[in-house]
Each structure stands twice: as C-alpha cells, then as structure tokens.
Amino acid sequence: MTGGIVTAPFDEIWVESPDGQSLCALINGERGWLMYLREEGDSGYSSRNPDYDGPAEATIEYELTNGQHDWYPASWAVPIADVRQALEFFRREHRQPPFIVWHED
Q1: Counting Cβ atoms within 10 Å, is residue 74 exposed (0-12), middle (13-18) or buried (19+)?
Q2: Dihedral, CA atoms, 55, 61, 46, 21, nearest 10 degrees?
Q3: d(CA 83, CA 30)
Q4: What is the 3-state secondary structure (H, E, C) of the chain?
Q5: Mean pLDDT, rounded, for 53-69
Q6: Would you kindly state where each structural domain of the chain is located, as residue ranges?
Q7: Is 63 within 8 Å of 10 (Cβ atoms)?
Q8: Using 50, 70 and 90 to split pLDDT, how confident is the model at 1?
Q9: Which of 46, 48, 72, 79 is the most exposed place for a label (fewest CB within 10 A)?
Q10: Burial grade of 7 (CB within 10 A; 0-12, 13-18, 19 or more)
C-alpha cells in the first residue's frame, strides 16, 4: 500500500427532485450508467454512449448499495465526467440532462 486512500470502483448515487423526478448513476471506475425517472414507478430513460465502438455484446459490472451485482451493456456507459456533470445539472435544474443521449425504456 502506498499510503493513499483506496476506494472501491463501484458507486450508486440517487438524486431526487422536489417534484418526484430522480436520476440514478451506477458507477464502475471511470464510467457510469444513468437512469432518469419522471416519477416513482416510471420505466424511465437510460443513457447511451454514441461514441462507443466496442463489441456489441460487451457488458460492464455495477454493484448496487445493497450488494447486488448487475451487468449492463458497455454502450450504455458514459465517461465519469459526463456522469458527474449530469448529476450536478439535475441537482440544480431538476430536469433531465439534455447533453446525455437517452433511450426511453
């Protein structure tokens, strides 16, 4: 160990707006997957990465706060900088971040 702080690559972040909308980010290292819900029970929207050029069948593992592990297509993941920007935008604006490419689920 080098004396630095070791952090897990996984994170699950939920941000809720006063009117019931929510944005979820599942993070694995330098990539993350976003889900936007208009209200509780909504099928919602999930992020897509238009710049993804890897194998169509590739997946990325995410760990939820309850310890569950899920795998989602790698083409759904966006760079961590975009995830952080989307979370901040949603906290401030209480609406779906327009700079993310979304797919209605």
Answers
A1: middle
A2: -170
A3: 9
A4: CCCCCCCCCEEEEEEECCCCCEEEEEEECCEEEEEEECCCCCCCEEEECCCCCCCCCCEEEEECCCCCEEEEEHHHCEEHHHHHHHHHHHHHHCCCCCCCEEEEC
A5: 96
A6: 10-104
A7: yes
A8: very low
A9: 79
A10: exposed
| pTM for this entry | 0.89
Per-position b or e across 24-49, b if 16+ CB within 10 A of its CB:
bbbbbeebbbbbbbeeeeeebbbbbb
- Structure token pair of residue 1: 């160990």
Cα Rg of the chain, angstroms: 14
According to DSSP, the residues that pair with 61 across neighbouring strands are 71
In the chain, what's the furthest Cα-to-Cα distance? 46
Alpha-carbon span 85 to 66, nearest angstrom: 25
pLDDT of residue 26: 98
